[in-house]
Design brief:
single chain, alpha+beta, 24% helix, 28% strand
Length: 156
């Protein structure tokens, strides 16, 4: 794998917002393991576990081959595939929301595992209701039209 080509960077955090026991809660380590296994030996994306207070996973990607939204879709599908197998009841359903934004402000920390200007930070949310979750964080629909924000939704 040519790591020099992996010049895109996205950090992932996990927000388990399920009220019902559809799937078990997972640890930081289990969350990261899902992506490390799911990404496998792809040449265009690589993952690394972080010890940061908020960010759990670093995803490096070839920005000449993949758009950030494509990376988000790949990651959401990896999580959905694993979580489908972990459902308590096979007929239960919920959503994975991959809510990402590009950092526009200067970095205030010297921590190498923090988000840097121009990089993407994504909250990976597991929720029964995307509209309820977005309302709970004060999200406005007009955010979707900003070029520095995107979201991916997957039903599990």
């Amino acid at each position: 794998m040519n790591l020099d080509r992996l010049n895109g960077r996205m950090l992932l955090a996990h927000n388990f917002a399920l009220r019902d026991p559809i799937v078990p809660e997972i640890s930081r380590e289990a969350f990261a393991a899902i992506f490390l296994e799911g990404l496998g030996d792809r040449a265009d994306i690589k993952g690394r576990t972080l010890t940061h207070a908020h960010w759990m996973m670093e995803i490096l990607f070839d920005s000449e081959q993949l758009e950030p939204q494509q990376v988000g879709k790949i990651c959401a599908e990896i999580l959905a595939e694993t979580r489908q197998e972990q459902k308590v009841y096979a007929n239960s359903a919920y959503h994975i929301l991959f809510l990402a934004g590009q950092k526009q402000t200067p970095v205030t920390s010297s921590d190498p595992d923090t988000l840097k200007t121009g990089e993407w930070g994504a909250d990976v949310v597991e929720t029964e209701s995307i509209p309820d979750f977005l309302a709970s964080i004060g999200w406005k629909e007009e955010n979707n039209s900003k070029p520095t924000i995107f979201r991916v939704e997957v039903r599990v």
